[in-house]
Amino acid sequence: MTHKVVSKKDKKYKKILIISITAIAICSIGYWGYKYFTKNQEQNMPIPAVEVVKVNTQDIYPQSSFVAKIESKDKVGLRARVQGFLQQRLFQEGDLVKEGQPLFIIEPVNFEASVREAQANVTKAEAQVKNAKSQFDRTKTLFKTKDVSEAKLDETQAAYHSAEASLEQAKAKLDLAKKDLEYTTIVSPMDGKIGESTYSVGELIGPASNTLAQVVRVDPIDAVFSVSENEMLNLQKNFPKSGKVAVDFIKADGTVYQQEGQIDFVDVTLDEAMNTLKIKASFPNKDGELISGQYGRIMIKSLEAKPEIVIPMKAVQQDMMGTYVYLVDNNNQIVRREVIRGTELEGFNVVIDDGLNVGDTIVTEGFQKIAPQMTVKPIFEPTNEQPK
């Protein structure tokens, strides 16, 4: 009888095979046991309840806010047009001034003397014209009777015209002298507020001097702001073409300026460097409450209501994938829906620009208990209409 010799190598393979079969069997038993246990657990677990609301529209008044800077419509630096010693300063720095109000007086003595001298020269020239005209008229009469030559007539005519030219020259010098005298009183070119004085009384000033002071127009005054291209498109979309909007200026401390403004300038092109559009809103500022250089915010609010989808802010979720809400479908299963979030409103509500439809049911409470495709029990919030 022949005996088969089993090698050590065959014994090793046989042992590995037995261990592998045993491991597979154990895993299979564990897997199906887990599935059975889980299934029983799921069947025994209660369906989670979540609070929901029905999506509906609400009439809202679109509004947008932008950082703004107060700027004067006009700024004028006062300069001396004639040279002389500063004799008087007729204002307090920071005063509100009126158009034509005297602000500085340059010592006028020399200029008054120049006016008197120029006036005397005009009087003298007028007398010379009168005399030259008499000579010319007399010569014309004598020329008709052949008592003087034509050359003499031409001479007296030329003398007359020369006297007239001298008179015009004297009058022009008188006008300049009067204007220089007028320039010794420096007046405000407009209603506004005057700043700090650069020179003191007694200093020599003239056309080459620096600006004496600056007057800025304060009523009305502008709030200047810029909007990006996307913001501009949003304004065009949400605000009425009729232009019926309220424009408010909100100061840095949060208080609202009492006077309402209006948009009076929209630039015709976008700034190429910043890709923004410059806009100006004009505000009454009779008491000078708004100051050039002051920062705040412009709030633009439509005066015409627009129906928008509005939901509680707490219903909106955010993760790395984007902004979304959880819907409950007709089978009471959870569905994730991506949305585009719009303007935040009072009462912790938010406008949804895209992603939801009227009649959708969205989850507002109980997010920690749910996941997509899970079956839930929707409980409608009492403040919302129950589904029919």
Overview of the structural elements:
This protein has three domains: 87 residues, conserved putative lor/sdh protein from methanococcus maripaludis s2 fold, CATH 2.40.420.20; 88 residues, Efflux pump adaptor protein, beta barrel domain (Elongation Factor Tu (Ef-tu), domain 3, Beta Barrel); 141 residues, RNA polymerase II/Efflux pump adaptor protein, barrel-sandwich hybrid domain (OB fold (Dihydrolipoamide Acetyltransferase, E2P), Beta Barrel), CATH 2.40.50.100. A hairpin with a 2-residue loop joins β18 and β19. α2 packs antiparallel against α3. The C terminus is likely disordered. It has four helices and 24 strands. The strands form six sheets. Strands 13-16-3-12-15-14 form a six-stranded antiparallel sheet, covered by helices on one side. It has 388 residues and is an alpha+beta fold.
